[in-house]
Amino acid sequence: MKISIYLTLLSLSLAFSSGAQKRQEVQYNRFTINGEDGSKQTFFAEDKRINSKSDRLYSWYASNKITLTEGGFSGKLLNGEYTRYYPNKNLAEKGIFKFGLRNGLWRSWSSEGLLTKESNWIEGIETGAFVQYNSDGKQEKKGELKNGKLHGAIQLFSGSDSTSVQYYNEGKSISEEEYINSNLFRKSGSYLGRTFGKLFNKNKEPKQK
Question: Which Gene3D superfamilies does the record match to this protein (predicted)?
């Protein structure tokens, strides 16, 4: 009986120790930078050895600041959720870093709490569906980015019922005929149809923390 009680207590002790260690690791890797103007950044960062790519901008943390360096880093790589706040506590920007590079859906807001942009990132490059909003929080531009450049059919919204379309091939403006002949309309059209709903038809983030 005594042996059974001892083993139970030992098991509980080990479980508690393991849980405490995990909590300490999470707390250790989570950082907050408070700006003198009242702004704030919260993020996760960790020491990680990786083979950096020369054409990527890496975000890393050292000496209580975040630095962006092309092709390398000299501190803890941002890795995980990143959130930035305005001095008035409204959300400014939110997204995910993966070993120093932006990945997945990123959102940005105005200081009044209105969405200004939603876009997708892949290994530090803005690529895929995006939506840009005007100062009233209404859609202003929508389409696809490729390597950070406008690509395919880009919808422009200038009023409640006014919509126009411009065509691009990796940042270069092209005609509708060139767009169709280059087969971009099939590639970008099917891609956007799959991704817009997946990325942007989710519940919006709250305006305030």
Answer: 3.90.930.1
